[in-house]
Amino acid sequence: MTTAEFLRENGLTPGKLDFQHWVAEFQREMAAGLAGEKSSLRMIPTYLSAQNLAPGHEPVIVLDAGGTNLRIALMEFTDEGPKAGYFHTVPMLGTQGALTIGEFYDRLAELVAPIADRSGRIGFCFSFPCQILPDLDGLILHFDKEVNISGAEGSILGVGLRAALEKLGKRHDHKVAVINDTVAAMLGAISQNLGDARSMGFILGTGTNICASFPVDSIGKLPAVQREKGGTMVVNLESGGFDALERSAVDLAFDATLADPGTQVLEKLISGAYQGPMALSYLRAAAIEGLFSPAGTAGLTALPALSAKDISDFLNGGTDNPLAFLNAEDKAVTLDILDGFFRRAAMLTAATLAAVLDACGDAKNPAKPVAIAAEGTTFYKCPLLHKYLLEDMETLVAQGMGLYSKFVQGENPNLTGAALAALG
């Protein structure tokens, strides 16, 4: 078997027909999710309209809870741009020891207490599974990312925080607006004049996700009284769950080794958390087919792990990485396989973005491209994926479909985006 045959047999030589098929399938799943029908895309309404958001000069308390850190700030939009008048960072609650949900709120209130009386609004970027409620508060589904907080399921963030602030004798009448990091990326760009109401949010890092504004009357899962209001609403697609994809035997075998086989299919094919181990699976599969020297095969078999950073270092010509043992011929085969691996990832990513640009219906003017607020180390630091994605967005999406966009990146989007949401 040749390297070209291996790539072809494993779906790593995608073409225009694959791209068109992926766009169509993604749009079908979007429509089903908006209607409340069975879909691999959750299409979560945020009850926010990007049409109605405008930065004011009122200070906003902002919380940014991620898997590693919790940031607390007092943000204000000035004529010179967003400014933080107070800023404090601590390890994310629940990463330094187990907490109950009550303890979580008590500690959160203690952190907010120094600035609790500085604003009646709290913007909360909450990067964990959460259902957004019509009043913009958030109902916790569960914590993940190794955050150990028990009893959280069904708890409402704003309600719990206000009650804990009241126990401290602090101001506790705040309006709380909860968003996730993808929506924050989008709103952060808008708040910094890098985008407008047509903008999209896009995360491609450890995981992946997309958000965008959809006509309210297209969101069939909303109550009729909500749909009758018209306008647009930001929807969190949870795009990493897209599963209407044919996968190779290598993809399926790798998925079977994970704790959650059959879920987050798109995420496993493109995002940073899975790139290293999945690429190693492909290299080992190629070794079984005889594409590597005996020494290369032995080295790949013995290699305990491979990370996305390892791959980026290898592609950038670094010699201090786990693939440094490969000889020149084996390196050439590895580069060919990684090239195909990232070509597929890039085209899949472009197809999902194109599907959203087309569905939202306002990307036809090349003079006014839609801003895609992009965040994530995989997007910015993975050289082949970044290169091929930009190419596909130009040739397949702009030239092929007449849909025009540009990638933008805001500064501190989680903070500025959450602040803007709280002012809505």
Output the keywords:
424 residues, six-stranded mixed β-sheet, 15 strands, 15 helices, alpha/beta, 43% helix, 18% strand, single chain, five-stranded mixed β-sheet
Strands, helices and their partners?
Blueprint: H1 3-9, H2 16-35, E1 44-45, E2 60-65, E3 69-78, E4 81-91, E5 99-100, H3 101-112, E6 121-126, E7 130-132, E8 138-140, E9 149-150, H4 157-167, E10 175-179, H5 181-191, E11 200-204, E12 208-215, H6 224-227, E13 232-236, H7 249-256, H8 265-270, H9 272-288, H10 294-302, H11 308-315, H12 328-360, E14 370-375, H13 377-381, H14 383-401, E15 405-408, H15 413-423
Parallel strand pairs: 2-6, 5-9, 6-10, 11-14, 14-15
Antiparallel strand pairs: 1-13, 2-3, 3-4, 7-8, 11-12, 12-13
Helix pairs in contact: 2-12, 3-4, 5-15, 9-10, 9-11, 12-14
Question: How would you characterize this protein structure?
Answer:
The mean pLDDT is 94. The chain has helices at residues 3-9, 16-35, 101-112, 157-167, 181-191, 224-227, 249-256, 265-270, 272-288, 294-302, 308-315, 328-360, 377-381, 383-401, 413-423, and strands at 44-45, 60-65, 69-78, 81-91, 99-100, 121-126, 130-132, 138-140, 149-150, 175-179, 200-204, 208-215, 232-236, 370-375, 405-408. The protein is 43% helix and 18% strand. The chain contains 15 helices and 15 strands. The longest helix is centred in the last third of the chain and has 33 residues, at 328-360. The chain is of the alpha/beta class and 424 residues long. The chain has a 6-stranded mixed sheet, sandwiched between helices. 49% of the residues are buried.
